[in-house]
Specification:
With about 290 residues, the protein is α/β, with parallel strands linked by helices. It folds into two domains: about 80 residues, lambda repressor-like DNA-binding domains (434 Repressor (Amino-terminal Domain), Orthogonal Bundle), CATH 1.10.260; about 190 residues, Endonuclease, Chain A, CATH 3.30.870. It has a six-stranded mixed sheet, sandwiched between helices. A hairpin with a 7-residue loop joins strand 4 and strand 5. Helix 1 runs parallel beside helix 4. The radius of gyration is 21 Å and the shape is elongated. The N and C termini lie far apart (about 60 Å).
């Protein structure tokens, strides 16, 4: 049976659609006994191209998908049309493409995945991007792009604000963030910016789809000494979890089972070591009074 996301559902972003289509093509290929080499020959390409298609890491030509479906013995017209429509939708540009002048190519994939996932993140240096105020986001952007012009800085801040729209839609994803106390005490942008940011975080904790925990200094060392990371989990069983680790000029996307298990255990330990979510408003309020008083 072919699983196709419902129109307007949580997995309609092009990045996720490519992953979903690739997973279904892999299932069809394996069930028909065709090798990747044989599939590549059928579409006048290579085994590595088939591998990238099945991982959802490249776009899909409708003709290639049609030829593969024929090779895999998919004759049902309804199933063929559903998969061909998925290929067409997967090639549609995401909202972020209009920010291509300031958006690194390695981050575009993340934006497509983030919009369709349960998001669990650990942050040690900054407030999570999805919870940043405009003023805080501007201060963060200036840290990395201080030599850029005003127009470019504005574009980068607008991009970050646009990302946050996914938390305001009818069915927002669950965001579960664990933040090191250091990120909340670091005076990004100065006291006034931090007062606004902490106040916004207190407000965010009222959302039923935002779970925020703080790891206090008193916790000492903890499970994620290696730095910040995000785990993305999808509702469709065809799609594997992904660990995202951002670097200065690139990013890692990990989907091997050993890596996923390692980071899942680290995240669970972080959640245990952090203060419980119900204490977060109190902690943020105390930080606000102690560190950034009016």
């Amino acid at each position: 049976m072919t699983m196709v996301p419902a129109e307007g559902g949580p997995t309609t972003g092009p990045t996720v659609l490519r992953m979903l289509l690739g997973a279904q093509l892999r299932r069809l290929r394996e069930s028909s006994g065709v090798t990747r080499e044989g599939a590549g020959w059928e579409i006048r390409s290579s085994e590595s191209k088939i591998s990238r298609m099945e991982l959802g890491r490249v776009g899909f030509k409708e003709r290639d998908v049609s030829d593969l479906l024929t090779l895999y013995g998919v004759s049902d017209e309804g199933e063929r049309e559903a998969l061909l429509k998925l290929a067409r939708d997967a090639n549609s540009p995401g909202w972020w493409h209009r920010y291509g002048d300031v958006l690194p190519s390695w981050f575009q994939s993340y934006l497509g995945l983030e919009a369709a996932a349960l998001i669990r993140s650990y942050e040690v240096q900054f407030v999570p991007g999805l919870l940043q105020t405009r003023e805080y986001a501007r201060a963060v952007v200036l840290l990395g792009h201080g030599g850029a012009g005003v127009a470019e800085i504005d574009r980068r801040v607008d991009l970050r604000m646009q990302r946050q729209q996914l938390l305001l839609r009818d069915k927002p994803p669950l965001l579960w963030a664990v933040v090191d106390e250091a990120a909340l005490r670091r005076p990004i942008g100065g006291p006034e910016v931090m007062r606004g940011q902490l106040t916004a975080l207190i407000e965010a904790t009222k959302s039923p789809t935002v779970r925020l925990q703080v790891i206090p200094f008193a916790a000492g060392g903890h499970a994620a000494a290696g730095g910040a990371f995000t785990i993305l989990r999808f509702g469709d069983q065809e799609l594997p979890d992904i660990v995202y680790i951002e670097q200065l000029t690139s990013a890692l996307y990990l989907d091997k089972r050993d890596d996923l298990d390692y980071y899942a255990v680290a995240m669970e330990r972080l959640c245990v070591e952090a203060e419980p979510p119900e204490r977060t408003p109190e902690i943020l309020g105390r930080l606000l009074e102690e560190t950034y008083p009016q």
